[in-house]
Write a structure and sequence with these properties.
Blueprint (H helix, E strand, L loop, with lengths): L1 E2 L6 E6 L2 E4 L4 E6 L2 E4 L5 E3 L8 H12 L5
Antiparallel strand pairs: 1-2, 2-3, 3-4, 4-5, 5-6
Length: about 70
Amino acid sequence: MILNMDDGDIIVPVGNGLGMDSEGDLHMRVGEHMSMNMNNGDLHMVSNWEDDDPENCNNFISHLFGFKDK
């Protein structure tokens, strides 16, 4: 579990750099200590959010914003 330092919510990772908080909002991991609330676009400081495979987060962000591999 991950603690949202901004509002005290708990974020439960669901895979591929995504998590769901206690209010039902979807969060995307954008760094080891940062997430983006996908419902409203707010950035939040969070406790350590480790990813088993850092490429999962990078690939998801690339896919989301349409970046292509070289």
